[in-house]
Amino acid sequence: GRDAALVREREGERLLECIAGGDTVVVCDERGAAWTSQKLADFLGARRTSGAGGRVVFVVGGAEGLSDAVRARADVVLALSAMTLSHELARVVLLEQIYRALSILHGHPYHRA
User: Fold this and answer.
1) Angle between the N-to-C axes of helices 37-49 and 87-105, in degrees from 0 to 180, rounded to the nearest 10
2) Within 13 Å and on the Cβ side, how many CA atoms surround 11?
3) Nearest-angstrom CA–CA distance, 93 and 102
4) What is the DSSP letter of 62?
5) Which residue among 10, 63, 89, 109 is least packed, with the fewest CB closer than 10 Å?
6) Collapsing DSSP states into helix, strand and coil, what is residue 61?
7) 81: helix, coil or strand?
């Protein structure tokens, strides 16, 4: 019986409280850009060597999705899939892709092109 819009907005407020001004925010949303694992590795590698302060913060919305305020704060909107994934599964997919991207950057054989 919860109002989905209210849940989404409150969750968005809590998420935004955790993001610092200098952070680079990557929001995961099925309407975002479809990147390859190599593109994610290039992004993380460029961010690491740029000397920019702040963290790279990946945001996966909850069961009700993301608020407009969180989307507006995004520096990148990234699609993990054209299909809608549960937020629990999206976190697992995202974690694996970050691991894969870091493996690419370190020349580890985990990623085979």
Assistant:
1) 70
2) 18
3) 14
4) B
5) 109
6) coil
7) coil
pLDDT tens digits for 97-113? 999 999 999 998 887 76
Give bridge partners of residue 77 from the DSSP assignment. 27
User: Could you report the per-residue pLDDT of 44-63, keeping only the tens digit for each?
Assistant: 999 988 877 789 999 999 88
Q: Is the pTM of this model over 0.85?
A: yes
Q: Which residue type sits at 67?
A: S
Secondary structure of the chain: what % helix, strand, coil (to 5)? 45, 20, 35
Residue 24 bridge partners (DSSP): 56
Structure tokens at 111: 């990623």
Residue 38 C-beta-side C-alpha neighbours within 13 Å: 2
Cα–Cα distance, 106 to 90 (Å, whole number): 24
Specify the range with the lowest mean pLDDT, choosing from 34-43, 67-76, 82-91. Answer: 82-91
Name the token pair of 103. 């493996």
CA 9/CA 64 separation, integer angstroms = 10
